[in-house]
Amino acid sequence: MENVQSIKQRFELIGNDVKLNRAIEKAIQVAPTDISVLVTGESGVGKEAIPKIIHSLSHRKHAKYIAVNCGAIPEGTIDSELFGHEKGAFTGATQTRSGYFEVADGGTIFLDEVGELPLTTQVRLLRVLENGEFLKVGSSQVQKTDVRIVAATNINMFEAIKKEKFREDLYYRLSTVEIGIPPLRERREDIHLLFRKFASDFGQKYKMPTIRLEDDAVQLLLKYRWPGNIRQLRNIAEQISVLEENRNISTATLNSYLPSSSGSNLPAVVGQTKKESDFSNEREILYKVLFDMKSDLNDLKKLTLELLKNDNSEKVQEENETLIRKIYGGKEEEFEQEEESMAEVLHLPEPVVENPVVMSQPQEDRYHFAEEIQEEETLSLQEKEIELIKKSLERNRGKRKAAATELGISERTLYRKIKQYDL
Hints:
With 423 residues, the protein is an alpha/beta fold. The chain has helices at residues 4-11, 18-30, 49-56, 78-83, 100-103, 119-131, 157-162, 168-174, 188-205, 215-223, 229-243, 251-257, 282-309, 313-319, 321-328, 332-346, 379-395, 400-407, 411-421, and strands spanning 37-40, 65-69, 84-85, 97-98, 108-112, 133-135, 142-144, 148-153, 177-180, 212-213, 248-249.
Protein backbone atom coordinates (compact mmCIF):
# COMPACT_ATOMS: atom_id res chain seq x y z
CA MET A 1 0.00 0.00 0.00
CA GLU A 2 1.34 3.41 -0.96
CA ASN A 3 1.90 6.03 1.71
CA VAL A 4 0.46 9.56 1.87
CA GLN A 5 3.62 11.29 0.67
CA SER A 6 3.96 9.19 -2.45
CA ILE A 7 0.29 9.76 -3.30
CA LYS A 8 0.80 13.53 -2.94
CA GLN A 9 3.73 13.43 -5.35
CA ARG A 10 1.88 11.22 -7.80
CA PHE A 11 -1.24 13.41 -7.93
CA GLU A 12 0.59 16.74 -7.34
CA LEU A 13 -1.16 17.48 -4.06
CA ILE A 14 0.46 20.32 -2.11
CA GLY A 15 0.16 20.75 1.65
CA ASN A 16 0.91 19.22 5.03
CA ASP A 17 -2.39 19.93 6.78
CA VAL A 18 -3.48 17.19 9.20
CA LYS A 19 -7.06 17.08 7.87
CA LEU A 20 -5.84 16.83 4.28
CA ASN A 21 -3.49 13.98 5.21
CA ARG A 22 -6.31 12.18 6.99
CA ALA A 23 -8.55 12.48 3.90
CA ILE A 24 -5.82 10.96 1.72
CA GLU A 25 -5.29 8.15 4.23
CA LYS A 26 -9.00 7.27 4.17
CA ALA A 27 -8.94 7.24 0.36
CA ILE A 28 -5.97 4.84 0.37
CA GLN A 29 -7.69 2.55 2.89
CA VAL A 30 -11.05 2.27 1.04
CA ALA A 31 -9.54 2.03 -2.47
CA PRO A 32 -9.10 -1.80 -2.55
CA THR A 33 -12.78 -2.31 -1.62
CA ASP A 34 -15.99 -1.62 -3.57
CA ILE A 35 -17.44 0.60 -0.85
CA SER A 36 -19.35 3.69 -2.02
CA VAL A 37 -17.63 6.92 -0.99
CA LEU A 38 -19.03 10.42 -0.52
CA VAL A 39 -16.53 13.30 -0.72
CA THR A 40 -17.68 16.50 0.99
CA GLY A 41 -16.21 19.99 1.04
CA GLU A 42 -16.69 23.50 -0.24
CA SER A 43 -16.47 24.38 -3.90
CA GLY A 44 -12.89 24.66 -5.12
CA VAL A 45 -11.14 22.58 -2.42
CA GLY A 46 -10.02 19.86 -4.85
CA LYS A 47 -12.57 17.10 -4.21
CA GLU A 48 -11.96 15.61 -7.67
CA ALA A 49 -8.52 14.31 -6.57
CA ILE A 50 -10.00 11.79 -4.09
CA PRO A 51 -11.95 9.63 -6.64
CA LYS A 52 -8.86 9.55 -8.88
CA ILE A 53 -6.79 8.24 -5.97
CA ILE A 54 -9.43 5.63 -5.13
CA HIS A 55 -9.73 4.44 -8.74
CA SER A 56 -5.95 4.26 -9.32
CA LEU A 57 -5.39 2.15 -6.18
CA SER A 58 -8.36 -0.21 -6.75
CA HIS A 59 -8.62 -3.46 -8.70
CA ARG A 60 -10.65 -1.44 -11.27
CA LYS A 61 -7.71 0.75 -12.25
CA HIS A 62 -7.46 -0.81 -15.74
CA ALA A 63 -11.17 -0.24 -16.44
CA LYS A 64 -12.82 3.04 -17.32
CA TYR A 65 -13.02 6.04 -15.00
CA ILE A 66 -15.82 8.49 -15.89
CA ALA A 67 -16.40 11.83 -14.12
CA VAL A 68 -19.92 13.25 -14.42
CA ASN A 69 -20.90 16.75 -13.32
CA CYS A 70 -24.52 16.21 -12.29
CA GLY A 71 -25.17 19.94 -11.94
CA ALA A 72 -24.19 20.66 -15.56
CA ILE A 73 -26.64 18.21 -17.19
CA PRO A 74 -30.23 19.43 -17.83
CA GLU A 75 -32.87 17.68 -15.77
CA GLY A 76 -34.69 16.40 -18.86
CA THR A 77 -31.66 14.55 -20.26
CA ILE A 78 -29.77 13.39 -17.17
CA ASP A 79 -31.50 9.97 -17.07
CA SER A 80 -30.53 9.41 -20.68
CA GLU A 81 -26.93 10.47 -20.00
CA LEU A 82 -26.53 8.17 -16.99
CA PHE A 83 -28.56 5.12 -18.04
CA GLY A 84 -28.89 5.47 -21.83
CA HIS A 85 -32.02 5.37 -24.00
CA GLU A 86 -33.71 3.32 -26.68
CA LYS A 87 -34.37 4.56 -30.20
CA GLY A 88 -37.60 6.59 -30.30
CA ALA A 89 -37.80 6.91 -26.50
CA PHE A 90 -38.28 10.67 -26.87
CA THR A 91 -38.11 13.39 -29.52
CA GLY A 92 -34.62 13.42 -30.99
CA ALA A 93 -33.72 9.85 -29.92
CA THR A 94 -32.85 8.69 -33.45
CA GLN A 95 -30.76 5.75 -32.26
CA THR A 96 -30.08 3.63 -29.19
CA ARG A 97 -27.48 5.13 -26.87
CA SER A 98 -25.49 3.60 -24.03
CA GLY A 99 -25.35 5.54 -20.76
CA TYR A 100 -22.38 6.09 -18.46
CA PHE A 101 -23.30 3.18 -16.21
CA GLU A 102 -23.26 0.80 -19.18
CA VAL A 103 -20.03 2.19 -20.64
CA ALA A 104 -18.19 2.19 -17.28
CA ASP A 105 -19.12 -1.42 -16.46
CA GLY A 106 -16.29 -2.81 -14.33
CA GLY A 107 -14.86 0.66 -13.66
CA THR A 108 -15.56 3.73 -11.52
CA ILE A 109 -18.02 6.59 -11.93
CA PHE A 110 -17.42 9.89 -10.15
CA LEU A 111 -20.70 11.78 -9.63
CA ASP A 112 -19.71 15.37 -8.89
CA GLU A 113 -22.38 17.68 -7.37
CA VAL A 114 -24.57 14.66 -6.65
CA GLY A 115 -26.84 16.86 -4.50
CA GLU A 116 -28.15 18.46 -7.72
CA LEU A 117 -29.69 15.22 -9.02
CA PRO A 118 -33.49 15.29 -9.56
CA LEU A 119 -35.53 13.09 -7.21
CA THR A 120 -36.60 10.77 -10.04
CA THR A 121 -32.96 10.16 -10.99
CA GLN A 122 -32.10 9.57 -7.34
CA VAL A 123 -34.57 6.65 -7.30
CA ARG A 124 -32.83 5.08 -10.34
CA LEU A 125 -29.40 5.61 -8.76
CA LEU A 126 -30.56 3.99 -5.52
CA ARG A 127 -31.52 0.85 -7.48
CA VAL A 128 -28.06 0.71 -9.08
CA LEU A 129 -26.42 0.96 -5.67
CA GLU A 130 -28.64 -1.73 -4.18
CA ASN A 131 -28.42 -4.47 -6.83
CA GLY A 132 -26.57 -3.07 -9.86
CA GLU A 133 -29.73 -2.98 -12.01
CA PHE A 134 -30.98 -0.15 -14.23
CA LEU A 135 -33.39 0.50 -17.08
CA LYS A 136 -32.65 2.52 -20.17
CA VAL A 137 -35.06 5.34 -20.92
CA GLY A 138 -37.84 3.89 -23.03
CA SER A 139 -36.86 0.27 -22.33
CA SER A 140 -38.48 -2.44 -20.21
CA GLN A 141 -35.44 -4.73 -20.17
CA VAL A 142 -33.45 -4.72 -16.93
CA GLN A 143 -29.69 -4.47 -17.39
CA LYS A 144 -26.90 -5.20 -14.93
CA THR A 145 -23.75 -3.20 -14.30
CA ASP A 146 -20.76 -3.55 -11.99
CA VAL A 147 -19.72 0.02 -11.24
CA ARG A 148 -18.02 1.56 -8.22
CA ILE A 149 -19.61 4.92 -7.37
CA VAL A 150 -17.74 7.81 -5.77
CA ALA A 151 -19.87 10.92 -5.25
CA ALA A 152 -19.04 14.48 -4.19
CA THR A 153 -21.07 17.43 -3.01
CA ASN A 154 -20.53 20.92 -1.64
CA ILE A 155 -23.98 21.27 -0.05
CA ASN A 156 -25.16 20.36 3.44
CA MET A 157 -26.80 17.00 2.79
CA PHE A 158 -28.80 17.00 6.03
CA GLU A 159 -30.35 20.35 5.11
CA ALA A 160 -31.17 19.00 1.63
CA ILE A 161 -32.79 15.92 3.20
CA LYS A 162 -34.76 18.12 5.58
CA LYS A 163 -36.04 20.20 2.64
CA GLU A 164 -36.89 16.97 0.75
CA LYS A 165 -34.45 17.77 -2.05
CA PHE A 166 -32.39 14.63 -1.46
CA ARG A 167 -33.45 11.12 -0.48
CA GLU A 168 -32.29 10.03 2.95
CA ASP A 169 -31.91 6.37 1.94
CA LEU A 170 -29.72 7.36 -1.03
CA TYR A 171 -27.53 9.50 1.23
CA TYR A 172 -26.80 6.57 3.53
CA ARG A 173 -26.08 4.34 0.53
CA LEU A 174 -23.59 6.82 -0.91
CA SER A 175 -21.90 7.76 2.35
CA THR A 176 -20.76 4.32 3.49
CA VAL A 177 -17.46 6.13 3.92
CA GLU A 178 -17.45 9.93 4.00
CA ILE A 179 -14.26 11.85 3.26
CA GLY A 180 -14.22 15.55 4.11
CA ILE A 181 -11.79 17.97 2.45
CA PRO A 182 -10.97 21.04 4.59
CA PRO A 183 -11.39 24.56 3.12
CA LEU A 184 -8.27 26.54 2.30
CA ARG A 185 -8.81 29.02 5.16
CA GLU A 186 -8.29 26.11 7.61
CA ARG A 187 -4.98 25.21 5.92
CA ARG A 188 -3.02 28.40 6.67
CA GLU A 189 0.40 26.79 6.40
CA ASP A 190 -0.42 25.43 2.94
CA ILE A 191 -1.59 28.70 1.35
CA HIS A 192 1.85 30.12 0.57
CA LEU A 193 3.13 26.71 -0.59
CA LEU A 194 0.26 26.44 -3.06
CA PHE A 195 0.76 30.00 -4.30
CA ARG A 196 4.46 29.39 -4.93
CA LYS A 197 3.65 26.16 -6.81
CA PHE A 198 1.10 27.92 -9.00
CA ALA A 199 3.43 30.89 -9.59
CA SER A 200 6.21 28.52 -10.69
CA ASP A 201 3.90 26.58 -13.01
CA PHE A 202 2.58 29.73 -14.69
CA GLY A 203 6.07 31.19 -15.00
CA GLN A 204 7.11 28.13 -17.01
CA LYS A 205 3.85 28.03 -18.97
CA TYR A 206 4.08 31.67 -20.12
CA LYS A 207 7.91 31.71 -20.24
CA MET A 208 8.17 34.55 -17.75
CA PRO A 209 10.11 35.04 -14.50
CA THR A 210 8.32 33.58 -11.48
CA ILE A 211 6.53 36.15 -9.32
CA ARG A 212 7.49 36.47 -5.66
CA LEU A 213 5.58 37.94 -2.75
CA GLU A 214 7.05 40.44 -0.32
CA ASP A 215 6.77 39.63 3.38
CA ASP A 216 3.78 41.92 3.96
CA ALA A 217 2.05 40.45 0.91
CA VAL A 218 2.56 36.94 2.32
CA GLN A 219 0.80 38.00 5.54
CA LEU A 220 -2.10 39.40 3.52
CA LEU A 221 -2.25 36.15 1.56
CA LEU A 222 -2.54 34.17 4.81
CA LYS A 223 -5.17 36.47 6.35
CA TYR A 224 -7.48 36.43 3.34
CA ARG A 225 -10.53 34.20 3.73
CA TRP A 226 -10.40 32.52 0.27
CA PRO A 227 -14.11 31.80 -0.28
CA GLY A 228 -13.22 30.20 -3.63
CA ASN A 229 -10.54 28.05 -1.98
CA ILE A 230 -7.73 26.55 -4.13
CA ARG A 231 -9.47 27.40 -7.41
CA GLN A 232 -9.55 31.09 -6.46
CA LEU A 233 -5.90 31.04 -5.30
CA ARG A 234 -4.82 29.47 -8.59
CA ASN A 235 -6.74 32.03 -10.66
CA ILE A 236 -5.21 34.97 -8.77
CA ALA A 237 -1.70 33.53 -9.14
CA GLU A 238 -2.30 33.23 -12.90
CA GLN A 239 -3.66 36.78 -13.20
CA ILE A 240 -0.68 38.28 -11.39
CA SER A 241 1.79 36.16 -13.39
CA VAL A 242 0.36 37.41 -16.68
CA LEU A 243 -0.44 41.04 -15.89
CA GLU A 244 2.30 42.32 -13.57
CA GLU A 245 5.59 43.52 -15.05
CA ASN A 246 7.23 43.89 -11.64
CA ARG A 247 7.81 40.32 -10.48
CA ASN A 248 8.11 41.33 -6.80
CA ILE A 249 4.54 41.62 -5.61
CA SER A 250 3.77 44.14 -2.87
CA THR A 251 0.82 44.20 -0.47
CA ALA A 252 -0.93 46.94 -2.47
CA THR A 253 -0.54 45.00 -5.73
CA LEU A 254 -1.82 41.75 -4.22
CA ASN A 255 -4.72 43.55 -2.53
CA SER A 256 -5.87 44.94 -5.87
CA TYR A 257 -6.49 41.37 -7.08
CA LEU A 258 -8.42 40.28 -3.97
CA PRO A 259 -12.18 40.90 -4.00
CA SER A 260 -12.98 43.36 -1.21
CA SER A 261 -16.38 41.81 -0.39
CA SER A 262 -14.85 39.02 1.65
CA GLY A 263 -11.25 40.11 2.02
CA SER A 264 -10.83 39.69 5.77
CA ASN A 265 -11.76 37.59 8.75
CA LEU A 266 -13.07 40.59 10.67
CA PRO A 267 -16.69 40.56 11.82
CA ALA A 268 -19.05 42.05 9.28
CA VAL A 269 -20.65 45.40 10.08
CA VAL A 270 -24.37 45.28 9.56
CA GLY A 271 -25.75 48.32 7.76
CA GLN A 272 -27.87 50.68 9.83
CA THR A 273 -30.03 51.99 7.00
CA LYS A 274 -33.74 51.32 7.17
CA LYS A 275 -36.19 50.78 4.39
CA GLU A 276 -38.61 53.66 3.94
CA SER A 277 -41.69 51.48 4.39
CA ASP A 278 -40.24 49.42 7.24
CA PHE A 279 -40.47 50.28 10.96
CA SER A 280 -37.44 47.97 11.34
CA ASN A 281 -38.41 46.56 14.70
CA GLU A 282 -41.40 45.04 16.41
CA ARG A 283 -41.41 47.52 19.29
CA GLU A 284 -42.48 50.43 17.08
CA ILE A 285 -45.27 48.35 15.56
CA LEU A 286 -46.44 47.35 19.04
CA TYR A 287 -46.39 51.00 20.16
CA LYS A 288 -48.56 51.95 17.19
CA VAL A 289 -51.15 49.26 17.92
CA LEU A 290 -51.31 50.22 21.60
CA PHE A 291 -51.75 53.90 20.72
CA ASP A 292 -54.68 53.12 18.44
CA MET A 293 -56.39 50.90 20.99
CA LYS A 294 -55.90 53.33 23.87
CA SER A 295 -57.13 56.35 21.94
CA ASP A 296 -60.21 54.55 20.61
CA LEU A 297 -61.02 53.22 24.07
CA ASN A 298 -60.88 56.69 25.64
CA ASP A 299 -63.16 58.11 22.94
CA LEU A 300 -65.67 55.33 23.47
CA LYS A 301 -65.58 55.95 27.23
CA LYS A 302 -66.55 59.58 26.68
CA LEU A 303 -69.41 58.68 24.39
CA THR A 304 -70.67 55.90 26.67
CA LEU A 305 -70.61 58.24 29.68
CA GLU A 306 -72.78 60.75 27.84
CA LEU A 307 -75.28 58.04 26.87
CA LEU A 308 -75.52 56.94 30.51
CA LYS A 309 -75.99 60.48 31.85
CA ASN A 310 -78.63 61.54 29.33
CA ASP A 311 -81.97 59.94 28.52
CA ASN A 312 -82.31 61.76 25.21
CA SER A 313 -80.00 59.80 22.93
CA GLU A 314 -80.79 62.07 19.96
CA LYS A 315 -79.59 65.05 21.95
CA VAL A 316 -76.44 63.14 22.93
CA GLN A 317 -75.67 62.47 19.28
CA GLU A 318 -76.17 66.13 18.38
CA GLU A 319 -74.04 67.44 21.19
CA ASN A 320 -71.29 64.86 20.66
CA GLU A 321 -71.12 65.23 16.93
CA THR A 322 -67.45 66.22 17.11
CA LEU A 323 -66.56 63.20 19.19
CA ILE A 324 -68.48 60.84 16.89
CA ARG A 325 -66.71 62.32 13.89
CA LYS A 326 -63.43 61.82 15.70
CA ILE A 327 -64.16 58.12 16.22
CA TYR A 328 -65.81 57.25 12.91
CA GLY A 329 -64.04 59.51 10.42
CA GLY A 330 -64.19 62.85 8.63
CA LYS A 331 -66.02 62.50 5.29
CA GLU A 332 -69.66 63.57 5.20
CA GLU A 333 -70.98 60.46 3.43
CA GLU A 334 -69.04 58.07 5.66
CA PHE A 335 -70.16 59.94 8.76
CA GLU A 336 -73.82 59.66 7.74
CA GLN A 337 -73.44 55.94 7.06
CA GLU A 338 -71.83 55.40 10.46
CA GLU A 339 -74.65 57.34 12.14
CA GLU A 340 -77.26 55.18 10.40
CA SER A 341 -75.55 51.94 11.42
CA MET A 342 -75.09 53.23 14.97
CA ALA A 343 -78.78 54.19 15.21
CA GLU A 344 -79.82 50.80 13.90
CA VAL A 345 -77.72 48.94 16.45
CA LEU A 346 -78.90 51.05 19.38
CA HIS A 347 -82.52 51.17 18.03
CA LEU A 348 -82.37 54.94 18.09
CA PRO A 349 -84.14 57.40 15.78
CA GLU A 350 -81.94 58.74 13.01
CA PRO A 351 -80.59 62.19 13.99
CA VAL A 352 -81.21 65.18 11.76
CA VAL A 353 -78.18 67.45 11.59
CA GLU A 354 -79.19 70.83 10.16
CA ASN A 355 -75.83 72.51 10.44
CA PRO A 356 -73.04 69.95 10.20
CA VAL A 357 -69.85 70.92 11.91
CA VAL A 358 -66.97 71.72 9.58
CA MET A 359 -63.93 69.74 10.68
CA SER A 360 -61.50 72.45 9.73
CA GLN A 361 -62.95 74.77 12.44
CA PRO A 362 -61.59 74.06 15.93
CA GLN A 363 -64.28 73.55 18.57
CA GLU A 364 -64.20 73.75 22.31
CA ASP A 365 -64.43 70.45 24.10
CA ARG A 366 -67.68 70.77 26.08
CA TYR A 367 -67.19 67.45 27.85
CA HIS A 368 -63.91 68.05 29.58
CA PHE A 369 -65.31 66.50 32.76
CA ALA A 370 -65.01 63.05 31.07
CA GLU A 371 -61.25 63.37 31.32
CA GLU A 372 -61.47 62.16 34.90
CA ILE A 373 -61.99 58.59 33.59
CA GLN A 374 -59.22 58.86 31.01
CA GLU A 375 -56.01 57.05 31.87
CA GLU A 376 -52.88 59.15 32.02
CA GLU A 377 -50.99 59.08 28.75
CA THR A 378 -47.30 58.22 28.82
CA LEU A 379 -45.49 61.17 27.27
CA SER A 380 -42.81 59.07 25.64
CA LEU A 381 -45.39 56.83 23.93
CA GLN A 382 -47.33 59.84 22.63
CA GLU A 383 -44.17 61.41 21.25
CA LYS A 384 -43.29 58.13 19.59
CA GLU A 385 -46.67 57.98 17.86
CA ILE A 386 -46.40 61.61 16.68
CA GLU A 387 -42.92 60.88 15.31
CA LEU A 388 -44.17 57.82 13.39
CA ILE A 389 -47.05 59.77 11.85
CA LYS A 390 -44.80 62.69 10.83
CA LYS A 391 -42.26 60.39 9.21
CA SER A 392 -44.94 58.52 7.30
CA LEU A 393 -46.50 61.76 6.03
CA GLU A 394 -43.08 63.04 4.94
CA ARG A 395 -42.28 59.84 3.08
CA ASN A 396 -45.62 59.90 1.31
CA ARG A 397 -45.48 63.66 0.61
CA GLY A 398 -48.58 64.41 2.65
CA LYS A 399 -50.78 61.79 0.98
CA ARG A 400 -52.91 60.55 3.84
CA LYS A 401 -54.19 57.44 2.13
CA ALA A 402 -50.68 56.16 1.40
CA ALA A 403 -49.50 57.12 4.88
CA ALA A 404 -52.43 55.32 6.51
CA THR A 405 -51.69 52.17 4.48
CA GLU A 406 -48.05 52.30 5.54
CA LEU A 407 -48.99 52.75 9.21
CA GLY A 408 -51.53 49.93 9.03
CA ILE A 409 -54.51 52.06 10.06
CA SER A 410 -57.57 53.45 8.30
CA GLU A 411 -57.56 56.85 6.63
CA ARG A 412 -60.21 58.04 9.06
CA THR A 413 -58.09 57.01 12.06
CA LEU A 414 -55.10 58.85 10.61
CA TYR A 415 -57.23 61.97 10.03
CA ARG A 416 -58.41 61.82 13.63
CA LYS A 417 -54.84 61.58 14.93
CA ILE A 418 -53.69 64.49 12.76
CA LYS A 419 -56.45 66.64 14.27
CA GLN A 420 -55.72 65.31 17.76
CA TYR A 421 -52.01 66.19 17.64
CA ASP A 422 -52.53 69.32 15.49
CA LEU A 423 -50.06 68.08 12.86
